Amino acid sequence: MQGNQKDENALRINREITAPEVRLVGENIPEQGIYPLAKALAMADEQELDLVEISAKAEPPVCKILDYQKYLYQQRKRAKEMKANAAKIVIKEIRFGPNTDEHDFQFKLKHAAEFLKEGSKVKATIFFRGRSIQFAQQGEKNLLRFAVELEEFGRAENMPVLEGKRMSIMIAPIKKK
Description:
Radius of gyration: 30 Å
Number of helices: 4
Low-confidence stretches: 1-6
Largest sheet: 5 strands, mixed
């Protein structure tokens, strides 16, 4: 980006506004309405604030008289809060073979239930090594059984999918109301 180009989302302030007339809105003005640009700038100078173009596409452009630095600070603070409140999705993977023993299956099931309770997604994967790909049906049965046994904690997002030598299913936690 070159030095004289501005960010598209940046607002124009004070002398950067080029329209001959502007519509003033907000709390810092005696009466909302359309004013010549010079008068709007004079009103902003009297209050030692900035004239900020809020909507450039409107006819005439909509402006507010406010402290621009304070406005930018509040925008950044609001964006940071929104980012902090955004849900972070964690995917935990559980792997086993097509001929996994019952005890091992129950052990992995218990771990998957804990992951779902804490709000993480679970990706259950069965690895087929060597000729064990012949047991693809057995692997699919195990994955479906895994999803059914976890129904009270989460729901399967898709049916088991075979990708190369691994078959997987994704289980999402149930949202609590």
